[in-house]
Each structure stands twice: as structure tokens, then as C-alpha cells.
Design a protein that fits this description.
This protein is mostly helical and about 500 residues long. About 60% of the residues lie in helices and about 5% in strands. It is found in: Cell membrane.
Length: about 500
């Protein structure tokens, strides 16, 4: 029995069994990529940040609006102004939604009939586009399900209808990110496999490299998700792709390095177990050092107080797992297959020297100052013309095929460029807001915000249509009162 166990140990069977168990658990326990990106699409912000404070205030909102999602229902006549007949259809459709609002968990619907003063904010200047605002309680349903339900219910013959909001656009963007991530990972794995196969002229080496890298990636992916779920580890919508790139780039280089060294040793010592042991002994130190350096570098990103940057610390886990896979799983196949790992090529082949790099290195050693000037000449123009003024929007990555994107673009085109992504300012007062003093302060703030550069319009309690309501101002009321006695005396 001891001899059997010793033979199994020498053949690294225990290592293979452990990896099979680990990979199987990782595949079973990890959710699919689409659900992962959907779940971790929002960056984690500090509790002292403005968005978090605003979210807490919104969470205490009255009138059953606590925890609701705001959606914009958009109707457009693509040819001309909305006709009276079409307006009646819109009113009937909105009335039907109000009637069945309990079915859709709708808590509030704001239309041009329920917000007369705010009508300019809900009807475009050309009269071709009209919107209604819906506050809806998710009640456990996904945003995608709610959007599909409202989209089907809101359709009107002769008009284009859309259901959109910044959250819906972000959800569509995340679906796009998930799709691109899957395609990119498949392409990267194929590219890595082809590189190994072409470089070593071996089908077996390419397939074994694929198995090693896939095992490393799946294990890292599952482990990262468990850390994010149970220990609140930072995880972003791009983390999956980052883990794949980190694993495949370094893993491919290491596999080429190891298999090339293994092929060289097989020429002098055909016994596979000895050559495998000697190969691992030769490359263990450089692989471990490079892996640990990368691990430490990316682990340091966890100290940066920004979740998108902190999520890069997951790459530290990726490199630790990759080191283990490279030094333990790959040798299992090397020892078992021996020289057959390079089939159909009889050997790993002799790698020639690069004349270009030899000449470049010789020139650098001969004239180091000239080499430095050449490097500066090539890099300084990029530094000089670098522009860090970046402007990113999820809609720049998306096509117009999705109805939410069409709705957002329609609002931006017929209202103002920022209509689909408004900025909400939450104001909290220790005393009731409906006093003359507080309303005056709110109106002053509204006017001040309107005067800010790049702000097109501001809607508030005192200016629901984006313009002051003249009859509510004290000066106008006093003027009206003063004119009445004069009028009576004249009569």
C-alpha cells in the first residue's frame, strides 16, 4: 500500500486530484459572468460622499416613495407636433397605468395633467415629445423585468414610446460589458492557445497550457466573488476581464518559458520525471519572484480609497493562484507525457537569437547617451500632446437598437443634452420647508444654480417649470392688492 501511494505521489496524481476538486467547486459555486457584472455594477463610495448622503435622504422620502426607482416614460411623434387625438391616447394610456399602478408597484406618476406648472419641463418646445415620470418600487424584481413590463404596457399606435432612466441605461451598458467580456475572454484563450501551439509547434502543449490557464482563471474568479460577497472585497464590472487578461498574459509567458526549458532538458535527460523535477527547480525562483512582485504591487491598490482602483487588488489573488497552477498543475502533465507533450513536433525546437535585439542592445551599450536621446525623442511628443480631459458616458459604447438608449437620446435631442441624466440636489431642513423663509432660500438657490455655467435649466418646488411663478412673489401680490382700491375708486 505504501508503495502504491509513493508511486501516486511520484506521478503527482494527488496534485491533479486536488486541482480537479478545486476547479469543480469553483465552477459550481461561481455565478455566470452576466449576473456578476449586473450585481457589482455600482462603485462603492464612502459614507461621507455626497451620493451616499443623498441616497440616505431619498431612503427617508415620504409619500410611499422610499426606495423607489425613477423612470421616464417618453412619447414622440417623429413627424410633427403631437396632435390632440394622440394626446388623448397618451392621457388614456397614463390613466390605465394609474388604474393598474398597484399591479406594477407604481407609487407615483407625474404627468402634464398632475403638474401643470411643470408642463414646460415635460413637453419639448417643438411639441413633438412628451414625458411622464414614474416612481416604481422594485419589490424584488430586477430592473430589466420592470422595464420590459412598462415598455409593453406603454405602447401607443402612431407614436414612438420609450422607458428610460440613467439606471436603465447603465443596466444596458452592463449587459454590453458582459457580452464584450465573454467574447474577449474567449478570444484571449484562443489566442493564448494558438501562441503556445505555434511557438512550440505542438498540439498537446497548447491544450495543456489551456487547461492550466483555465483552471487558474476559474479558481481566481470564484475566489474573488466569494471575497466580494462575504468580506465586501471591492469588485467592479471590469474585474472579470482584468482577471482574465492578467492570468492569460503572464501565464502564457510562463508556460512558454517552462515548456521550452523542459524540452531542452529532455534532450540531455529523456527521463520525464527527472527532467520535470529539474525544470521546476530551475524556474521556481524567477516565476515566484515575478509573481510576488506583481502581487505586492496590485495589493497596494487596496489602500486607495476608491472602489474602482481597489478592485485591482484582485489581481494579487490572480497571480498567487497562477503561481500555484504553474508550479504544481503543469508539472503533472510534463511528468506524465514527457517528450510526447511536444507532439507532433519531435522536440521543442531550438530557439534562434534575435538579430534586431542584439543590435539594439549593442548600440545602447556603445552609445548610451544617444540611446537615451532616442527614447526621449519617441516619448516626449506623446507626453506633450497628452490630454487628460476625458468625457465618458455609457451611451457612447451603446448602439441605438435598445429602446432605453433611443429614449435617452430622444430626450437629449428634443429637450436639453442633459435631460436624460439630470443631477438631483437634495436639501434637508430642520424646520418645515413650506415657510416663507425656507421657500425664499430655496428659490434663491434655484436662481443661483440656473446662473451656473453649463446648466441649462433648474426645476424646483418654487420653479417647477424652470421659471419663477410670478403670482406667488410677495412684491407682485402687494402690487395687485394696491391696484384694486385704485380701480374701485376710479369706478
Amino acid at each position: 500500500m505504501k508503495q502504491i501511494i509513493k508511486n501516486l505521489h511520484n506521478n503527482r496524481i494527488f496534485t491533479l486530484i486536488v486541482w480537479l476538486i478545486v476547479v469543480l467547486i469553483a465552477i459550481i459555486s461561481a455565478p455566470n459572468i452576466t449576473n456578476t457584472i449586473q450585481q457589482y455594477n455600482e462603485p462603492s463610495l464612502a459614507t461621507s460622499s455626497q451620493p451616499v448622503k443623498a441616497e440616505k435622504l431619498q431612503g427617508k422620502w415620504g409619500y410611499n416613495l422610499k426606495g423607489t426607482i425613477t423612470m421616464n416614460l417618453v412619447y414622440q411623434n417623429p413627424n410633427q407636433k403631437i396632435t390632440d387625438k394622440q394626446q388623448q391616447k397618451i392621457n388614456n394610456q397614463l390613466a390605465s397605468l394609474i388604474k393598474h399602478q398597484s399591479y406594477y408597484n407604481i407609487k407615483k406618476i407625474t404627468t402634464i395633467d398632475t403638474n401643470l406648472q411643470g408642463k414646460p419641463a415635460m413637453v419639448s418646445k417643438d411639441g413633438s415629445t412628451e414625458m411622464a415620470t414614474i416612481q416604481i418600487n422594485a419589490n424584488g424584481n430586477s430592473l430589466r423585468v420592470l422595464t420590459d413590463q412598462l415598455t409593453d404596457q406603454a405602447r401607443i399606435a402612431g407614436l414612438k414610446s420609450y422607458v428610460t432612466s440613467p439606471q436603465i441605461v447603465r443596466d444596458v451598458n452592463n449587459a454590453k460589458i458582459a457580452q464584450v467580456t465573454k467574447i474577449s475572454l474567449i478570444a484571449l484563450f484562443i489566442a493564448s492557445t494558438l501562441i503556445i501551439g505555434i511557438y512550440l509547434r505542438s498540439i498537446f502543449a497548447a491544450l495543456i497550457s489551456f487547461v492550466v490557464l483555465f483552471s487558474s482563471f476559474v479558481t481566481t474568479y470564484s475566489l474573488s466573488l466569494h471575497l466580494a460577497e462575504h468580506f465586501n472585497w471591492p469588485f467592479s464590472e471590469y474585474s472579470v476581464l482584468e482577471l482574465g487578461i492578467a492570468t492569460l498574459v503572464i501565464g502564457t509567458i510562463w508556460n512558454i518559458y517552462i515548456l521550452r526549458r523542459f524540452g531542452e532538458l529532455l534532450k540531455s535527460q529523456p527521463e520525464s520525471h527527472y527532467s520535470t523535477k529539474q525544470t521546476i527547480a530551475d524556474i521556481r525562483f524567477p516565476v515566484t519572484i515575478v509573481g510576488l512582485v506583481l502581487t505586492i504591487i496590485f495589493a497596494c491598490t487596496s489602500f486607495i480609497k476608491f472602489s474602482e482602483i481597489q478592485s485591482l487588488s484582485l489581481l494579487a489573488i490572480a497571480y498567487i493562484v497562477l503561481i500555484l497552477a504553474t508550479l504544481t498543475l503543469l508539472p503533472v502533465f510534463m511528468a506524465a507525457l514527457g517528450e510526447s507533450i511536444f507532439w507532433p513536433s519531435p522536440s521543442s525546437g531550438k530557439i534562434g537569437n534575435s538579430k534586431y535585439f542584439e543590435k539594439a542592445a549593442a548600440f545602447s551599450m556603445w552609445q548610451p547617451f544617444a540611446s537615451l536621446l532616442l527614447v526621449l525623442y519617441l516619448t516626449l511628443p506623446f507626453i506633450y500632446f497628452f490630454n487628460n480631459r476625458l468625457n465618458y458616458s455609457p451611451m457612447t459604447n451603446l448602439t441605438q437598437q435598445n429602446q432605453a438608449i433611443k429614449g435617452a437620446q430622444t430626450l437629449n435631442a428634443h429637450f436639453t443634452p442633459g435631460k436624460s441624466t439630470p443631477v438631483t440636489v437634495y436639501i434637508q431642513s430642520t424646520s418645515p420647508i413650506n415657510t416663507e423663509k425656507n421657500l425664499g432660500a430655496l428659490d434663491t438657490l434655484t436662481t443661483k444654480l440656473k446662473a451656473t455655467n453649463h446648466v441649462d435649466s433648474v426645476y424646483s418646488l418654487t420653479q417647477p417649470g424652470g421659471m419663477p411663478i410670478e403670482k406667488y412673489y410677495v412684491a407682485n401680490q402687494l402690487q395687485a392688492i394696491a391696484l384694486i382700491p385704485n380701480k374701485r375708486r376710479a369706478n
